[in-house]
Amino acid sequence: QAAKVPANFTPTKADYQKVYNKISSILETDNYDDGSYAPVLVRLAWHASGTYDKESKTGGSNYATMRFAPESLHGANNGLNVARTLLEPIKKEFSWISYGDLWTLAGVAAVQEIQGPKIPWRPGRVDGFENDVTPDGRLPDAAQGQDHIRKIFYRMGFNDQEIVALSGAHALGRCHTDRSGFEGPWTFSPTTFTNDYYTLLVNEKWSWRKWNGPKQYEDTKTKTLMMLPTDYSLIQDKKFREWVTKYAKSQDLFFQDFSKAFSTLLELGVPPAQFASPEPWLLSTVDEQSS
Ligand code: CCH
Description:
With 291 residues, this protein is mainly alpha-helical.
């Protein structure tokens, strides 16, 4: 049942904190993947934003165009219906929030609630229309290497350091054969935000997995972890590798740089004048509110 919103209602930071809290309350689950929806919500926030093109200033999180076909059906977005459907009751309860704000806020709550860094965030995205959908092919193709990811992320306006920092989100979640075709988690703790992605990339031996699925790496020791060709290119490329090494050595540095880059990512495509606040906010974790 959608709540009635008075015509002159202007949500405050406290109202968004309520939405944050609601999202946080549905993250844990006994019957999905590794016990948390946090990873797939982080992926939703990223795919909703990563369509940005800095030249044409199209795409990004502003219009939440993944609600529409064909974007919802773009191969890269396979499985994200799970995340969008999960958030639908929250959208009904807080009907005043835009989809773009809800999806990006869900990414923020997901990271913060699983021991990740604080992600500065502010509302202001508006719901757009089907004709705002961007063409397929703007998100990275995991089968490729460093030249491809540079091209894709430079188009969004990111540099090499930010590419490596953002990639650390693969500490979370897993690949699903029925979504991307790839299989398995990157780390042993896929529902906790850590710098393990980098330590494993650097410290483990990786070899091609022998199977009839798409080309992916497995760790030779346990054969339970995976790396995509794009992940592995981060240690094959000299410039990328320098950052991988830094983030493997310092979780603090990774948290600091991830926070900044992810916050930027979530604001791509939003005209600054639309934001409800001149500076992004820091929302409190559930733990912080109870102490
Ligand atoms: Fe990613 N990612 N990602 N990724 N991703 C996949 C899953 C997650 C690439 C490919 C894939 C980022 C960058 C890249 C997450 C966050 C981020 C999957 C498996 C593929 C393939 C999908 C499936 O089968 O379910 C490629 C290629 C790149 C860059 O080159 C960035 C940046 C972020 C966030 C900042 C998260 C989280 C997941 C896990 C989702 C889940 O359902 O567990």
